[in-house]
Amino acid sequence: MTTSATFFCCATCGVEITELLAELPEPSLRFERGAPAIAEGHFIRLSSAWTYRDFLSRRQGGRSYLSRDGDATAFEAGDHLLNIEDVEHLVMPKAAYGCCGLQPRDEFNASCRNGHPIGTIHDDCWAASVFRLARGHVKVIECD
């Protein structure tokens, strides 16, 4: 974990997509259904990949996820997880919705304001809400 402030830009066009944020350790993630997984003003850098089953079962204690896409990768090692409110973004036209919000699988559903894919919003009521900035699609700028 770093003590510097960090902001993120689109890797394709360079447009800023966040203000300055502070990094938190992975154990800081909260997994309450329908609530933000990360407090505003912060981000978490993932050390390992997670499947949907990981996100919804092992990481949320006592919950199970039996859907056939449970082994699809939800997050890659090196991805950054943020509060949705901290990311300036557009929802992509073909984004998948669940009953209460965006319910993606392993596709991008968010872009920068210039239309370049930057990540995935998970925001349906059955899981914690989180914005995944995809490794390779954003630039990480650390400030001292």
Oligomer, anyone? single chain
Identify the overall geometry.
globular
- Rg calc: 14 Å
Instruction: Name the average pLDDT.
Output: 86
| Count of discrete alpha- or pi-helical segments spanning 4 or more residues | 1
Largest sheet data? 9 strands, mixed
Could you tell me the strand content as a percent range? 25-35%
How many domains would you count in the coordinates?
1
Structural class: mainly beta
As a percent range, the share of helical residues equals under 10%
Q: Could you give the count of β-strands?
A: 11
- Main-sheet strand order equals 7-8-9-10-6-3-2-1-11
Cα distance, first to last residue?
Answer: 14 Å
Order of helices and strands: EEEEHEEEEEEE
* Poorly predicted runs of 5 or more residues: none
Summarize the structure in words.
It is a single chain. This protein is mainly beta. The chain has one domain. Helices cover 3% and strands 28% of the residues. The chain is built from 1 helix and 11 strands, in the order ββββαβββββββ. Strands 7-8-9-10-6-3-2-1-11 form a 9-stranded mixed sheet, with no helix packed on it. Strands 4-5 form a two-stranded antiparallel ribbon. β9 (117-122) and β10 (130-133) form a beta hairpin. The longest helix has 5 residues, at 52-56. It is globular and about 45 Å long.
Could you outline the blueprint of secondary structure elements for this entry?
Layout (H helix, E strand, L loop, with lengths): L4 E6 L10 E3 L18 E4 L4 E2 H5 L16 E3 L4 E3 L7 E2 L18 E2 L5 E6 L7 E4 L4 E6 L1
Parallel strand pairs: 2-3
Antiparallel strand pairs: 1-2, 1-11, 3-6, 4-5, 6-10, 7-8, 8-9, 9-10
